[in-house]
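Still learning. Show one?

>
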Amino acid sequence: MFQFTGLHWFSFLFFNHLIMSTRAHIAFYENPNQSLSEFTALLYRHSDGYPGTVDGSEYGVLPELVPFLKEFDQKRGLFDEEYAAARTLQYLTNLYDKDTVEMLQQFPNQPPYIGCLGYGICSSIHWDIVYFYAVYGTGQLRVYEYSPSDIDEPIDYQKDFQLIEEITI
């Protein structure tokens, strides 16, 4: 059995599986005509940022995010991107903390970083993300794969982001 220490242990150990840390952003916009650089709010997911499937047959962001966004849209409306982003962050961090508690029961010798890792709020797009989720106040969700052509150059929003899925909330 591997023993990981330091801040990134959760990115590697989860329910007896070795996994890679796949970083992602979840961005909120007023409408789909905005450039990806014009987000209202930008969230960061440190690990397990791959899409998965909406129906939950594959683990990832979509089976966690889409049901929450649908419920939020019905009760409040995604048109208020700031509230949508704040409540999404709360919902996802609550899930993350619950999973961390369960994982710590299986790996009791790991440091208890509950409430300290997993998600954040960003002011700019990180160079090391792999997936980018754009949530629109009009009820759409677009999933992009992000592959920067040169991390030392400014982001090319046309070239570096490839649309891989569109979902109606």
